Amino acid sequence: MPAAADPLEALREEALISLSDARDDASVELWRNHWLGRSDGRLTILLRSIKDQPADQRAAFGAGANVLKVTLETALEEKLESLRQAALARLGTEGALDVTLPGRPQLRGRLHPVTQTMRDCLDAFAQMGFRVFEGPEVEWSKYNFDAARIPEDHPARDMWDTIWIDTAAGDPREILLRTHTTPNQIRVMERTPEPPVRVVVPGKCYRHEATDATHEWMLTQIEGLAVDEGVRMSDLKGTLYQFAQTMFGRDRKIIFHHSYFPFVEPGIEMAIDCFICRGNDSKCHTCHGTGWIEILGAGMVHPEIIECHGYDSSRVTGFAFGIGVERVALLRWGIDDIRHFYSNDLRFLRQF
Amino acid sequence: MKLLLSWLKEFVDVDIPPPELKRRLLDATAEVESVDYIGGDWDPNLVRVGHVLAVEPHPNADRLRLATIDAGDSPQTVVCGAPNLAVGQKIAFATAGATLFDGHTGETAVLKKNKIRGVESAGMVLSERELGLSENHDGILVLPDDAPVGRPLVEQIGDVIFDITTWANRADLLGIQGLAREVAALTSRPLREPDRGFTQSGPAIESLLSVTIEDPILCPRFTAAVIEDVAIGPSPAWMQERLARHGMRAINNVVDITNYVMLETGHPLHAFDYDLVRGKQLIVRNAHAGERITTLDGIERELAPYMGLVCDADGPSSIAGVMGGSVSEISPSTRTILLEVANWHPGAIRRTSTHLHLRSEASSRFEKGIGPGVAMAAQQRALHLFEQLTGGRIATGIIDVYPGQQPARTVIIPEGRIEQVLGIEIPAAEVRRILTDLGFVVHHLPPNRFSVQPPPWRPDVQISDDLVEEVGRIYGYDKLPITFLRGALPQPEPNPFEHMRERLRDAAAGLGFQEVITYSLTDPQSLAPFVAPGDSRRAQPLAVTNPVASQHRILRTSLRASVLSTFAANRRHEDGPLRLFEIGFEYLPTEADLPHERPILAAVLGGARTDRWGRPTNERVDFYDARGVAEALFDAIGVRASFTASEEHGLLPGHTAGVTVDGDPVGVVARIHPASADVFDVQEPVFLVELDLEALVPGLPARPDYSPPSRFPEVRQDIAVVVAAGTPASRVLDLVRSHRVKGLSLAAAIFDDYRGQGIPEGQKSLAISLRYQASDRTLSDGEVARVQDALLKRLERELGATLRSA
Hints:
Chain A is an alpha+beta fold. Chain A is 40% helix and 18% strand. Chain A has helices at residues 2-21, 25-36, 42-48, 55-92, 113-126, 141-144, 183-190, 233-248, 303-307, 325-333, 340-343, 346-349; strands spanning 131-132, 138-140, 175-177, 197-206, 218-229, 254-259, 264-273, 292-301, 316-324. In chain A, strand 6 and strand 7 form a beta hairpin. Chain B is an alpha+beta fold. Chain B folds into 6 domains: 2-39 and 161-187, Phenylalanyl-tRNA Synthetase, Chain B, domain 1 (2-Layer Sandwich), CATH 3.30.56; 47-157, CATH 2.40.50.140; 205-401, Phenylalanyl-trna Synthetase, Chain B, domain 3 (Phenylalanyl-tRNA Synthetase, Chain B, domain 3, 3-Layer(bba) Sandwich), CATH 3.50.40.10; 413-434 and 448-479, no CATH class; 496-699, Bira Bifunctional Protein, Domain 2 (BirA Bifunctional Protein, domain 2), CATH 3.30.930.10; 715-803, 2-Layer Sandwich (Alpha-Beta Plaits), CATH 3.30.70.380. In chain B, the strands form 12 sheets. In chain B, strands 29-32-33-39-38-37-36 form a 7-stranded mixed β-sheet, sandwiched between helices. In chain B, helix 20 crosses helix 21 (781-799).
C-alpha cells in the first residue's frame, strides 16, 4: 500500500509547488492545462488510467486520484482568488489616481438669478395658498391707471413714470408698458365672479427712468392679492411676515410704515430688520444705518376697487402687495448694482 | 419739504429727541429722507456769540485787521481778513480749541492760537463756511443785533432740519402747521395756532377792488385783501434765515411774507402790485386759445383754453395757482399790495403746470388738493405779518368769493369697521382722541360707530376706510397682531402652460444653457436680420413714444436678436462652447387690441467642443448638437416632434429644420445665417433652437404613453439600407417605426449615414439598429426574420431602399 500511494503524493507536491510559482492568470491557465486539461492533463490521464490498475488496487487508487483532483481544483480556485485580490490591491496602489485632478467638464447651465428669486418668492406664497395668474405687459392705460384710482391730472401719476406705446393717429386707445402689476388686481377680480381670490401675479414692468445702481427701466414684480370676507390688515402682516422669514431668515422681524398708493386704503410700506448689521452699524450700506430695509408696498384694497367688481365692500375686504423681485435678489445676495441683472454677463450670472 | 425743529416748536412742544421724532414720523406720517443737525458739532463753550468792540489796522499787513471781541469773558484780540467786519456787529466767534470746518482741506480741524504776521490771534471770527453752513466765504456771518453776547452759537442759530417726502394726496403736510398737527397727534401734545390778529384801518375793500369768478369749477374760492402804504424793504433776519433753510432766496418783505406763510400754512399766496391791476378788478377765467402772458421768471408763455387765468380789466395778470405775471410784479416802488389767497381745482393746476413745464411751489401744493376752507386762515396770517413787518394799512374787509362752498362733510365709521379692516379692536376713547388731535370733529355713536367731520385741510379723507387709516397709523401698525388668512382656498386651476414652461426652463439649464433675461425693447436695426420684410406682423413692431434710449424704441417681435447679441457680448470673454437661452415674449401687433404676447424659448449655441481638460478642440458644435438639444427639450415635456427641411429669413438654407408636432409648426432648429450673425459681430457658426411655447400646449400628452418593461429578451439586429441620397433619413426611420406587427414592438435608431466607396453615386447607406421585443414571449429567430423580411420589402416598395450587401 505505501508503495502504491507514493506516486500520487509526489504528484500532489509537484503540482502544488508549480501552482504556487504561477504569478499571473496566464501561467495559472498553463498550469491548469498541464494538470487538469481535458484531453492530456496529467491528472486527467491518471484518472483515465484507473481502469488499468490491478483490480485489488483499483478502488484505493481511484479514491486517492479523486482526492488529488479535488485538492488541485481547490488550490486552483484559491490561487485565482488570491491573484484577483492582489490585482485589486494593486489597483488601489500602483493604479491609484490623482483624485485632485479636475473632472471631465460637463455642460452646465443655470437659471437667471431673477428667475431663481421669483421662484423662491412664488413658492413662499404657494405655501400660503396663493396661485399664480399672469397678465399682459402691454396694457391699457385705463387698467394701469384709471382702474387703479390713478386718474390723469393727479400727481400720484408721478409715482409711475410711464413708457407709452405709439398708437396710430386718431386712435383713441391709450396703450402703455405696464408700470406695475397692479392692473392684474382688476383683471383677476373681473374673472372671479365670487370671492375668495388669492393670487400672486408675477411679471415684467417698465418705468421711464434713468438707470443707476438701484434703478432699472425694466423690472420684475410680484403682485399679491387676497380678497374674501374677513381679510384683515393683520392677515397682511402675517402673510408678509411669513414671506420675509422664508426669504431672509427665520429670525426676521417686519415693520409697517404708513404710505400712500391710490389703490389701497390704508397703505403701508414694509421693512425688515437689517440682517446685515442688525441695526448696529450707522454706516451700513444695506440699511443706511436705520436698522430697517424697505422691501415692498402694500395695503388694504380700496373699497371702490372691491365694489367695481360687484363685491360688497361692507362684507368683502382684501389686501394687496407689490414686490420688486430684483430688490429681493439684490438684498438676499448682497449684489450692489441692479444693472448686472440685464447686462447678462455670464461671469455674473454663473455665480448664482 | 423741510421741517425745522425750531419752527415746529412754535406750534407744538417737542420733548422727544430728534431720532425718535424721525422714527415716529416715518412710521405714521411721511418718509423722512434725512435729519441734518445744524450746530451739532459746535462746542457751546468755545463757539459763541461775540461782540465786535474795536477794529484797528494790522501793523504788518494791509489786508488784515485786528479786532477786539467780547464773547462773554475778557475781550480778546484776533486777526481778521473779512472785509465786512465792523465795530458793533454781533458775530460768531470761535476760541482756540474749537473744531471747525476747514474750507481749504474740506475736513474738520481744531483751531489753534497762532501768530499771523507777528500778531497773536486768540480765536477766529467765523464765516458760514467755517461753520459748515454753506460755501459762503466772502465775509463773516453777521448775527442779529439782539443776539446775547457769550451765548453758545448752537443756541442762537443751531437747529435740526428734517427732510420729508410727503404723499401725492397730502398738501397739508407741505406746511409746518400740518406737520405740527401730526406731531401733536403722535405725541399727545396740544397744538398751538399762529397769531392771525390784525387791524383794519384802510378804506372799505369794496371801494378798492372787485373779483369775479367765471368758472367756479376752476376756482371754488377767491379771497383778496389790500394793504396800503407798504414800505418795501428787506424782511427781518429770522424770516430770511428760515426761508434760506428751506432753500428760498429772500427777495423783499412782501414776497418773503407770502413765501413764509405758504411754508407755515401749506397754502400758496400771491401778491400783486395793486397799482398795476388795471381797472381795479380781477376776473378769474379760462385762457383763450393763443393768449400769452409773461410770467415772473421772465418767460413769455402761450396759453391753452383749459388753463386758468387771473385777469384784470385789460388781460391776464397771473396764471392761476401756478405763477404770477410780470405785469403786476412787486417792485421796490410798490406801495399797495393786493393779496390773493385762492383755491384752485387740483387737476386744472396739474394739467397747466405739466403742459407749460412749469412746476412751482404753488402748483405742487394746489395739484395735491387743498380744501377751499383753508384759504381764509392763510389770508389772515399773512395780513398779521404784513401789519407787523411792512407798516402797511389793511383795507377794511376781505373779499371772499366762495362759489364752491360745501356744507360740512360727515363720514361714518360703521360698527366694527376698524376691527374688520385692521384686525385689532381700538378703544373708542383712543379713536376719538386720535381723530380729534388730527383736527376731525368726532361724535361717538355707541357702542362702536363714529360720525366724523373732516377738517378743511383734509379733502383726501372721503370714506370710512380713510378714517380707519388715520386711526391705524397714529395708533401704530406695530400694535397689529400677526394673523393668517382664514377661510376657503380658491378653486385650484391647472395651468399646463406654466407647468410646461418651467419644465423647459429647467431642462434647458440641465442641457448646459445659461438663462438670460434681455430687454423687451429693441431697435429696428437689430430686428431686421431676422424679420422678413413681408412678415407683416413682425416687420411692423409697436413703437414707443418716449423711449429711454434709442436702442430701446420698439417692442421686439423676435427674440433672436436679443439672444444673439447676448451671445456676441459674452463671446468677448468666453472661448469654448457657449450656450444661452431666454424665455420671453414676442410682441405681435394686433388690430384694435393689445398686442399678442407670444411666449418663446430661444436658445443659441456655438463654439468648439472641449477636450478632457475643458480646452477648446478643433471640432465645433454643429447643427446636430442643436437638433439634439431640441429633441431633449421635447423629451422633457413628453412631446414627439418632426423635423423637416425648411427656410426662414435670417437662417442658413440647407441648415434649417422646421419643427412640427402633430403637423403644427412649433419652432425651428437652424444655423443662423452667417450674414445675420455678422450684423452682431459673430463670425463663428451659431445655431438656434426656437420654440413657440403656446403652439406646444395642444400637443402636450394628457399622460405619458406608458407600457410595462417586457420580461422577455429583445432581439437586436443591425441593418444597412441603400437609398437615394436625397431621401430624408426621417422618412426611412418613420417607415421603420411605423411598421407594426401584432404582439411585437419594433424600436429603431439610425447610427450611420455613409456615402462614398462601395455605394453608387447619388445614393447613401443608412445603418439602422433594430430591436424586436414581445411582451408575452421570447421571440424565435424565424419570427424575427419574417418581420424583417416584410420590413425590407416595404422599404424597397415605398422608398426604393435596398439592403446593403456585406
